[in-house]
Design brief:
CATH architecture: Roll
Number of strands: 14
Number of domains: 1
Structural class: mainly beta
CATH class: Alpha Beta
Strand order of the largest sheet: 8-9-10-7-11-14-13-12
Order of helices and strands: EHEEEEEEHEEEEHEEE
CATH superfamily: 2,3-Dihydroxybiphenyl 1,2-Dioxygenase, domain 1
CATH topology: 2,3-Dihydroxybiphenyl 1,2-Dioxygenase, domain 1
Helix content: 10-25%
Distance between the termini: 43 Å
Largest sheet: 8 strands, mixed
């Protein structure tokens, strides 16, 4: 009897984000943050570093060819070997749908992603949003946005979109901190944006789950 060995391709994936925010600010939004100031959501860990420069300061990636940074986006080594367990947060959050990255030079950043082993899978000119590129990195979609008006040379992390079970329940919980619920770019889905008054440094949007 002949035996065959099968190799399953392993794709690049996002493992972690480090964010310079105080943990209590995320707890106040209904996220479950543990005693080590980690927030696990949809197989991705968010490490909350306390106040500081603010925003996403780095990300950890598995199965990529990158050391130090990718076009100015700092890369750190994952601090755990397997994804954290899945659970639903008190605010109904279940996963991170998208991380948005802005670049003053779209082609340069896209080429840097390709050299790291994660080329964009799709590009589009979207009305009102300009030139954008996309690819899935494990549980999270990378969304690259051209911003030629940005100051500086490097690309930068911008914001996150989080999936919640019910936008209506979240709106009731957060009140005026959550903007109006409106149709998302993705067909059949809706989205609402967190107010800048919420006390966190990362632009955050909440999205309904994918339709069945």
């Amino acid at each position: 009897m002949t035996e065959y060995a099968f190799t399953v391709p392993r794709e690049p994936e996002i493992a972690e984000f480090a964010i310079a925010d105080p943990p209590d600010a995320w707890r106040a939004l209904g996220f479950q943050v543990n005693d080590d100031d980690n927030l696990d959501i949809g197989m991705v860990r968010i490490r909350l570093l306390g106040g500081g420069a603010g925003g996403i300061t780095s990300w950890a990636l598995r199965r990529v060819d990158a050391v130090g940074d990718i076009d100015g986006l700092p890369v750190h080594t994952p601090r755990f070997s397997s994804p954290p367990p899945f659970y639903t947060h008190p605010n109904g959050a279940t996963s991170i749908d998208t991380v948005v990255i802005q670049s003053p030079d779209f082609k340069r950043t896209a080429d840097a992603f390709a050299r790291a082993g994660m080329p964009l899978k799709r590009e589009a000119l979207i009305e009102g949003r300009g030139h954008m590129g996309f690819r899935r990195l494990g549980p999270v979609i990378l969304e690259l946005v051209a911003r030629p008006d940005l100051g500086g040379e490097d690309s930068r992390f911008w914001g996150l979109t989080v999936v919640v079970i019910s936008l209506e329940d979240l709106a009731a919980r957060l009140g005026d901190l959550l903007g109006p619920i409106r149709p998302a770019l993705q067909p059949g889905r809706r989205i609402a944006t967190l107010s800048a008054d919420a006390g966190i440094s990362v632009p955050l949007a909440f999205m309904s789950p994918e339709p069945p």
